[in-house]
Amino acid sequence: MIAISVNSSMANGLVSPNDMKRGSLLLKTTEAGKMVEAIQLATNVEIDINGPIARTKVTQRFRNPSNGWVEGTYVFPLPETSAVDTLKMQIGDRFIEGVIKPKEEARKIYDDAKREGKKASLVEQLRPNLFTNSVANIGPQEIVVVQIEYQETVRQSNGLFSLRFPMVAAPRYNPKPRIVESVNFENDAQWGTVKDPVPDREETTSPVLNTEKQAKSNPVSLNVNLASGFPIGEIKSPFHNIVTDYKSKDQVKVSLSDQVVPADRDFELNWKAEPKQSPRVALFKETIGQDDYFLAFVTPPKLAQLAQDDIPTPNREVIFVIDNSGSMAGPSMRQAKESLLLALAKLQNQDRFNVIRFDDTYEVLFPSALEANTGNLDIAKRFVSSLEADGGTEMLPALEAALEDQTPQDKSTLRQIIFLTDGAIGNEKQMFDTIVKKRGRSRIFTVGIGSAPNSHFMNRASSYGKGTFTHIGSEQQVRSRMNELFTKLETPVLTDLRADWPTRNQPEKNNVEMSPSQLPDLYSGEPVVIMAKTKTTTQPTKETLDISGQFANQPWTIKLPLKSAQQGTGIGKLWGRRKITEIEGQYFQADNWDVLDQDILNAAMKYGLISKMTSLVAVDITPTRPADKDYTSQKIALNLPAGWDFEKVFGPDYASEPEPQEEASVSPLYSLAASDSPLESPTFAKAKSIPLPATATTAELQIILGILLLLATVLFMLVSRKMLTNGHRP
Any idea what DSSP says for residue 159? Predict the structure, then answer.
């Protein structure tokens, strides 16, 4: 078992397996034969959906079952477009509201409170979809409740409305640091520096349970209050069993049938309107001070509404990239292979194609894209069918190979890259930088495979690649989701898109700011999602927002009366999140990173949001840990995402089994939901035994870094000695 080290001088909280009278997971310490009980975690999720806007409260209850003082750190995912703006902490009958601070200042406030024995909570962003919650000075047998709130928009595609709540942060493959040559000396000796493509690998790496040998942990309860704004025809959750309670035709409460589930897969809710009731236009407004914030959803007409003779059939060059790394083992690999085989069968004779597969190596099937004739397709199908999942996830070389365009001047052919992966990588920035700089005429369509795909990578890669993102979470979804993707790939887009706001004729006043600033091309069934900020003091030049473009070689226009805009809540927060995302996109096209960091900081502080430059921190002013009592820090372990093969991801030598447990009644995690808590307390099912794991370290990675640094130091000493011998100064 690999476990964290705990200060052996800690007087309280150390136990031996024979001391335990209840089932509990124990962490090894530096004191022989002594261990400490792991922190327990339970989560409740409450989602309120009003039209296209969702507000989510995530309540995390940390319980210290030991007799010592502990600090717990939990790495958890949220939707990558979420605007996180609220932190509340409760200890006993004390209630503390968190505040947004610049990231370094928030960390200092938290560290000072931890050192002084005060209870504190710190929520930081590691990625737009990956966060940490650290809670300091949890006393013996104590419960600390932390609640986070965020805002997001509902996803819409081809008449299907959906919302995803990610429940588990999947383990990520982090490419190893490499030595970058930077200086050549006169005697040809070279001095190298270590460059890490994942500088925050320690923060993003958490211990993971081997759920083939250990019970799953981190129970979650979840409820959704859906007010759609239109009569609901069908509502489903593809990955969880749900119970629906209809309050009216457009309002329904959704709960998990099991009431409590382990956090090992994303929750997804899909709903449709009654036939012919689906809205094609939705316009919402929120006024804050002297600013009006608008959110517009507009769905273009479907191709079926146009004459087939007006739909051109473009020539295409399609490059398929499939991930066959270890994290894809099991159901994910089957889903990816079935999806790719379906895609190959959909190719037309005039299409050209190629297939690239990757793990820690990559392979290109043909020297160049070939015609989609029977012979070439048969070769490709046999190649795909033979793939097995194993090895690491070195995605960058495969992406670069896919972007290598041998006919970049060919404007008559659509060049489309279909990327099938779970996205379980830590070097997203490298990938985005490559897409922005080398995309050319290619369009990138990401297909997220598995129960917990990296949505941050999938969404941003498709956005920078001017394509779309499709998620396939089960084998039952392969055919329907891939058919939707084929429709987008085979049909023309809505081009030359523009939005004319009422004050557009007065640009000198600079009183309308829109996001995205330049509207992208859109694919069939995809809605136009536009946000804008205007001044309330500006007199409108007209009464409508006009959106126009070319669709299937036909002009297309729709007018939205501004007076009909519905009042919305939280649109200003969503605007702030959108602005931060757009600024982040400029990192790959500019070198003024300090300026962009300041822009993000300004926007995050103005709208009160967590970002890469800001964090939420809450501190109880009353010290509770005695000065003579030490504490230990623990990372809360995560479940392996459902369907993943532990040994394929970590190798057969990685062990995370807990110490043997007594066959006793486990103190249930569900008791963390105290009925007298002022934070919303979930209603849990009957207690189920879900013990927590021992935690793991990244010792192997630290050894690699140490060796690299040692080699660099030795090289520098040798070079310096040689230069001094020759009469040179280093």
Answer: T
Alpha carbon distance 541, 527 (integer Å)? 26
Strands 26-28 and 53-63: unpaired
- Cβ pair 393, 360 in contact under 8 A: yes
Residues belonging to the chain: 730
Q: What per-residue confidence (pLDDT) applies to 668?
A: 36
Q: Which two tokens stand for residue 587?
A: 């990192």
User: Measuring CA to CA, which residue among 219, 215, 147 is closest to residue 671?
Assistant: 219
Cα 112 from chain centroid?
30
Among 639, 326, 337, CA closest to 472: 337
| CA–CA dist 566, 390 (Å, integer) | 51
| Burial bucket for residue 208 (CB in 10 Å: 0-12, 13-18, 19+) | buried
Give the DSSP letter of residue 328. Answer: G
For residue 498, the tally of other CB atoms under 10 A from its CB is 12
Residue 146: half-sphere exposure toward Cβ, Cα within 13 Å: 27
Q: Which long-range contacts (CB under 8 A, 24 or more apart) does 300-303 make?
A: 300/494, 300/522, 300/524, 300/526, 300/527, 300/528, 300/549, 300/551, 300/556, 301/551, 301/556, 302/524, 302/525, 303/487, 303/491, 303/524, 303/552
Confidence of residue 193 (pLDDT cuts 50, 70, 90): low
Residue in 261, 267, 231 with CA at minimum distance from that of residue 246: 231
- The pTM assigned to this predicted structure is 0.82
d(CA 146, CA 242): 26
Backbone phi, psi, residue 130, to 5°:
-140, 125
Three-state DSSP state, 67: coil
Of the candidates 515, 537, 531, 663, which has an alpha carbon nearest to the alpha carbon of residue 52? 531
- Assess whether pLDDT exceeds 50 at residue 646: yes
Q: How far apart are CA 532 and CA 522, in angstroms?
A: 19
* Average pLDDT score over residue span 487-499: 79
Q: Give the closest residue to 286 by CA, choosing from 685, 565, 613.
A: 565
**Residue 467 DSSP label:** S
Locate 611 and state its tokens: 């970002």
> Prior bond to 331 cis, omega within 30?
no
Per DSSP, 261 falls in state E
Tokens representing residue 100 in the block: 């947004």
What tens digit of pLDDT does each residue of 541-566 get? 678 888 888 876 778 888 888 888 88
Neighbours of 539 (CB within 10 A): 10
Alpha-carbon gap, residue 128 to 151, rounded angstroms? 13
**Neighbouring-strand partners of residue 547:** 499, 558
